[in-house]
Automatic annotation (TrEMBL):
This is Alpha/beta hydrolase. It comes from the Bacteria. GO terms for molecular function: hydrolase activity. Keywords: Hydrolase. Pfam families: Ser_hydrolase.
């Protein structure tokens, strides 16, 4: 296999950044060409700072890239795509957080998200192939809303079943399906 042509997998975590037992962290440790957008030291709620961090991480990678985003990381990815033109091989967008609707306690309020540049959610077609995975019982996004986002982004849609927010509190450290979906993107 020609590893120069094999895409680098770049993890785009959500607002909680890097959680040791999260499937993204575990996947990064297991895959040979995987990296992660580094956590922010300042402006942790700034969408612009997070988009800039994603862009800086991409600038350090030569060759094809597959983005693997979770939760607010999906929103970072779609904001980045609306502002930048770098070619991306594909993106796995797992359990996007619907930040346009009220989030449960413990998450930023709509006004805070709006003040920090997160709203509105970009809805234009993504300039690269993508797969959106949605949970039927995600406390941060209704299934139908995620379906609508996937359609607007031109993404393939995958029903993940009842997996909560696809994070450690929902019982997900390892998530083997991520590798299957990444392989699909490699072949797209």
């Amino acid at each position: 296999m020609n590893y120069e042509l094999t895409p680098t997998i770049l993890m785009v975590p959500g607002l909680r950044d890097h959680v040791p037992e999260h499937w993204q962290t575990l996947l990064e440790q297991r895959l040979p060409k995987a990296r992660s957008v580094p956590p922010l030291e300042h402006d942790k709620l700034s969408c612009g700072a997070r988009v800039a961090a994603l862009d800086a991480a991409l600038a350090r990678i030569s060759g094809p890239v597959i983005l693997v985003a979770h939760s607010a990381g999906v929103m970072i990815t779609v904001h980045w795509a609306a502002q930048h033109k770098r070619q991306i091989h594909g993106a796995l967008l797992a359990a996007p957080a619907d930040i346009e609707t009220p989030l449960p306690p413990g998450y930023p309020e709509r006004q805070t998200l709006e003040q920090n540049g997160w709203l509105p959610i970009p809805r234009q077609r993504l300039p690269f192939p993508s797969i959106v995975g949605a949970s039927r019982n995600d406390p941060l996004a209704r299934f139908e809303r995620v379906q609508d986002m996937a359609q607007d982004w031109g993404s393939r849609f995958v029903d993940l079943g009842e997996v909560g927010h696809l994070n450690p509190p929902a019982g997900f450290g390892e998530w083997p399906m991520a590798e299957t979906l990444i392989r699909r993107l490699v072949l797209m």
